[in-house]
Amino acid sequence: MGVGLGRDLRYVVRTLSRSRAFSLVTIAIMALGVGATTTFFSLAYGVLVRPLPWPEPDRIVRLQEWRGGNRGRIPWTISNTTYHAWREAPETVEDIGGWMRTQPMTLTAGSGEPERVRVGRVTTSLFRVLWVHPATGRPFADEDAGSDGPHAVLLGYRLWQRRFGGAEDVVGRTIRLDDRPVVVAGVMPRDFTFPDREAEAWLPLQVARVEAGAGVIRAMIFNAVARIRPGVTPEQAAGEGTSRGRAAPKLGLAAVALFGSDGEVAVSATPARAALTDDVRPALVILLGAVVLLFCAALASVLVLQSSRAVRRRREMAVRAAIGASRTDLVRQWIVESAVLAVAGGLAGLLVAALLHQLLPALLPPDFPRAEDVRLDGAVMLFGLATGLVAGVASGLAPALQIRQNLPEALSSDSTMAGASSAGRRAGRIRATMMMLQVAIACVLLVGTGLLARSFAALVSADRGFDPHDVLTAHLTIRPRPFAAGAAALERAQARLRSLPGVTHVAFGNALPYVTTGGFRGLTLPSPGDPGVKLQAQTIMRTVHPEYFDALRLRVVAGRALDRRDTSSSRPVVVVNRTFAARYVGADPVGRILTFVAGSRREWEVVGVVDDVRQGGLTGVAPGVFGGLTDPPQPELFFTHAQWDTSVSDLVFVIRSAADPSMLAPALRAILHDEDPSIAIDSIATMEERLLNSLARPRTYAVLIGGFGLFALLVAAVGLFGTVSYLIAQRTREFGVRTALGARPGDILALVMRGALTIALSGIAAGTLGAVLLARSLRSLIYGVSPHDPVSFLAVPLLLFLVVALASAGPARRATRVSPLVALRTE
Q: Which residue in 299, 327, 325, 318 sits closest to 396, CA to CA?
């Protein structure tokens, strides 16, 4: 057996070396198919299947609190009141850990230049929940979270290597974060990333008690996980969390601000892996299905090549049979040849997968969950090789079964008439079926591409209530202080920026779409329909410079916007958005007096109403598939900075320019630093860039499906070109006879094109039906476009028809130039 296999391998190598074009094309097609399939298998496996990188991860659950049926303003969060009530004597969980989004902070250490790094705030219990210990040093202790604690920090491995050169004596060193001294307690392991890929250091999070003296309510919400005890189910843990939350102190209007209701508490506990990937699972399943279709198209193309090659080698097989080779020997030799091609294609596919893995970090959005768990490890590589091997053997098995040992029949049917034999007819049917399958797959994927591309275009051009074009934005961090206290430096910077060429409007504030939302607030207001009934109002408070409205081109639908007449000494005024007016003010809102305490003021006159602004989520929170466009608009209040005396720490600058706004970035940095060196600039970007970043997921899905569709189209075109070329070679004598009997070139051209286009039309028809099914699956991923969008369903078949016609036209024209004398020559 071993001797026979070795002989087959040597024979296969010699045979394939004589058919280099066939070998290279087959390996290339398999490499692309295997590479794409392996890459997206690793993506789906790493995100959806691979266990979380912590000990006993199945015991970790993600917590979420609900009040009155509403979840927190930030998804997957719980309140401090529930957290403390549950942790006092937990029965179903070992401990609860919490964290808040990472924030940029200025790191100053030694003689190095100050550097902005992303720092996460975590409870001292979080690492105990995850069972993660620093690689060097100690974890956080409970006293680290106290207001008078040692202010410890844990460094990430990358930061430790980059900033401190991996020095072992870094533990115990004092460094500064935002000019505050902190002591390095330890260094986390190399592969630890939490809560996202950008985190490079961690500070202890102090979870305030609900009542902090004098009856003042200090409410907060944050992300949380718990480790359940052995034998406890997530449902049991959720039941305990719910009962503890209901027994905890009430939050009153603070609950309205954070949850939209102060109703009954409910806590859910979801396995952490499912919770982390819930919003990307449907898209990944669709993408995995698309790459399976792509692989089927590649496999069909290889099968067409193998089938054509089998017909050409009928005489060779018959001769080998005549000199003693059994049918088993011939089939084995063919399968060995296919396996050799499969292994070569699989290895090349792994190289393609490795290249694609280098591109994945740039392709995936920054908030894509578990991206750090996507890697080309042994299991994934084994899958890639197995896929290539199975595909190669499967594509070679059908041609192997066509082998006949009838030497007279093989010798009587020369190569130019092989298509007329029974084996040739079977091979022809296989080729036609495979070509139809390739065209159908290309049609399905290209229709999906069309739907996602048109959806992305609709998302970009959708009305968000403001104009994102020609606007430069900057996110700033300042030391917490009343707005008015720092306004002088900001206004000087504003005046200097407004004097720059092309600048038309400059504003600043504490809120900006896709960057910050402003502050949450719960209010008690009289009902518009019945003043005797009190409503609990949940709103977002935005404090802005009056020019903010012109800088973003917010639409004033009633009354006026804030302006320079609104000063610290004038009557307190507020501008509301359309949703706030409809819910809490009623008809004719301009001139109404709203009574609530904000800073040192109690009564606020409504002077205007602006249209609702649609923006993508909260700072550090994924904006969703549609960049926040499908989220219901929230009630909003706009205050002028001159009348706001509450402390702020987050600021934004907005500059509208008649020229390219990105060219103003250096001047903005220089002017802000000159006016107030303590201001830290976290990011500068145009509003269009921020808008596109909020649409990173739909853009990624459209690019991926588009790439699959274009590859499938290329495979179909190349396969059809090769098939038509082969059929013309098989029918050379027939065309010569037809020409000798008076057939014109146009008749020959029509004959060849009719056969190719018939296959194409059959594939397009089948693909259109498949695209209808795909469109239903894509319903949750498309916006502003019908799943049965006529443009996509008409343009794609037309494109496919034209591509097929062009791919067939070249070989068909060669058929019209066949000389009768050459065609009728007997070999």
A: 299
Cα R_g (the chain), whole angstroms: 34
In angstroms, what CA-CA distances link 394 with 386, 440, 493, 715, 726?
12, 20, 70, 18, 22
Average pLDDT in the 132-161 region?
88
Least trusted range by pLDDT, from 328-342, 507-521, 689-703? 328-342
Q: Compute φ and ψ for 476, nearest 5 degrees.
A: -120, 150
Q: How far apart are CA 562 and CA 412, in angstroms?
A: 94
Residues 6+ apart with CB under 8 A from 88: none
Question: Measured between alpha carbons, how far is 258 from 71 in angstroms, rounded to an integer?
Answer: 9
| Residue 419 pLDDT > 90 | no
Task: Match 């997530």 to its residue by tokens.
Answer: 234
- Predicted confidence (pLDDT) per residue in 526-571, tens digit: 887 777 788 888 899 999 999 999 999 999 999 999 998 998 889 9
89: helix, coil or strand?
coil
> Which stretches does DSSP call E strand in 109-155?
115-122, 136-137, 152-155
Which among 275, 252, 268, 263 has a CA at the least distance from the CA of 70? 263
- The predicted-structure confidence for 627-653, as pLDDT tens digits, reads as follows 777 778 889 999 998 888 777 778 899
Question: Looking at residue 2, what is its pLDDT?
Answer: 52
Distance CA 95, CA 86 (A): 9
Instruction: Read off the tokens for 826.
Output: 């007997």
For 69-114, strand residue ranges (E) read 70-71, 77-79, 93-108
Half-sphere exposure of 113 toward its Cβ, with a 13 Å CA cutoff? 2
Beta bridge partners of 99: 122, 223
Q: What angle do CA 616, 621, 626 make, to 5 degrees?
A: 35
CA 471 – CA 657 distance, rounded (Å) = 6
Distance of CA 466 to the CA centre of its chain: 25
pTM of the model: 0.82
For residue 778, CA distances in Å to 278, 290, 450, 453, 775 come to 16, 11, 11, 12, 5
Pairing of strands 201-204, 152-155: antiparallel
In the predicted model, is pLDDT for residue 8 greater than 80? no
What pLDDT is recorded for position 325? 61
**Cα dihedral across residues 751, 753, 756, 757: positive or negative:** negative
Nearest-angstrom CA–CA distance, 11 and 17: 10
Q: Which two tokens stand for residue 273?
A: 């892996």
| Residue 371 confidence class, pLDDT cut points 50, 70, 90 | confident
Q: Which helix (H) or strand (E) holds 221?
A: strand 221-228
Residues 6+ apart with CB under 8 A from 35: 348, 349, 350, 351, 352, 353, 355, 356, 384
Cα of first residue to Cα of last residue in the chain, in angstroms, is 39
Return the H-helix or E-strand segment holding 651.
strand 647-657
**Residue corresponding to tokens 């929230």:** 634
The count of other CB atoms within 10 Å of the CB of residue 112 is: 11
Residue 604 to residue 515: CA distance in whole angstroms: 27
The span from the CA of 325 to the CA of 322, in Å, is 7
pLDDT in tens, 424-433: 566 667 677 8
Report yes or no: 793 and 702 within 8 Å, Cβ to Cβ: no
| Residue 645 amino acid letter | D
Tokens for 216?
């003042």
Closest CA to 238 of 204, 220, 265, 258: 265
pLDDT value of residue 64: 96
Distance of alpha carbon 780 from alpha carbon 646, whole angstroms = 42
Q: What three-state secondary structure class fits 154?
A: strand
> What is residue 625's three-state secondary structure?
coil
Extended strands (E) in 672-790 = 680-686
> Which of 338, 614, 239 minimizes the C-alpha distance to 463?
614
Percentage with pLDDT > 90 across the chain: 34
Distance in angstroms (rounded) separating the CA atoms of residues 346 and 43: 18
